[in-house]
Amino acid sequence: MAAKGTRPRTRIQQKNTSAILDAALDVFSANGFRGATVDQIAKAAGLSKPNLLYYFPSKEAMHQTLLAGLLDTWLAPLRALDPEGDPVEEILSYAGRKLEMSREMPRESRLFANEVLQGAPNLEGVLKAHLKPLVDEKAAVIAGWSADGRLAPLHPYHLIFSIWALTQHYADFDVQVRTVLPEIEAGDPFPEASRHIETMFRKMLEPGG
């Protein structure tokens, strides 16, 4: 439903907005914010530049809209880590969800990575206000599991960083992954990646492993 005092968007307006954001995601994920231009996004969306600017007044507006829409999705797998669950299975499930996101949302992963690599000018406040408290909360859960002997001794923050690095690598460095892998795996690296990550983390996480 449209906000009070505003008209609901027409079907063509919804279609154009969706096309613009999809094109912007392509351009930003490939070129980063600084390398992207409104002209590139308009061309990818199949719209004139003036038509695009009717919907979004600047590339900053498109970038911020994409980042805002991505945040909840990006944090959802970590939020789902259940303090009452089996520690090893909860962490493996988190790693699995992150890997699946790299498979299904590679452009979004690269958008996020490009923003962070550029100093997070549009995300710094969000990282401090939303990401850090969530990581602090889940790191405390992991530390508690480890202290109780339900996980091997480990540093909870670096464990989370390791999961990010291993899973997001398959999206952010997709070309490198597919170039280096044997041809039989290069078409779809994710099944073997999933088995490898689960085996590695299970050995690291299990007490006495």
General description of the model:
With 209 residues, the chain is an all-alpha fold. It folds into two domains: 9-57, Arc Repressor Mutant, subunit A, CATH 1.10.10.60; 64-205, Tetracycline Repressor, domain 2 (Orthogonal Bundle), CATH 1.10.357.10. Helices cover 76% and strands 0% of the residues. The protein has helices at residues 11-35, 38-45, 49-55, 59-79, 87-104, 106-117, 124-147, 156-172, 174-180, 183-186, 190-205. Helix 1 packs antiparallel against helix 2 (38-45), helix 1 (11-35) crosses helix 4 (59-79) and helix 5 runs antiparallel to helix 11 (190-205). The termini are far apart.
SSE layout and pairings?
Elements lengths: L10 H25 L2 H8 L3 H7 L3 H21 L7 H18 L1 H12 L6 H24 L8 H17 L1 H7 L2 H4 L3 H16 L4
CATH class of the largest domain: Mainly Alpha
The tally of strands reads 0
CATH superfamily of the largest domain: Tetracycline Repressor, domain 2
Beta-strand percentage range: under 5%
Helix content: over 70%
Question: Short summary of the structure?
Answer:
This protein is mainly alpha-helical and 209 residues long. The chain contains 11 helices and no strands.
Task: Please give a handful of descriptors for the protein shown.
single chain, 209 residues, mainly alpha, Arc Repressor Mutant, subunit A, Tetracycline Repressor, domain 2, 2 domains, 11 helices, 76% helix, 0% strand, globular, disordered N terminus
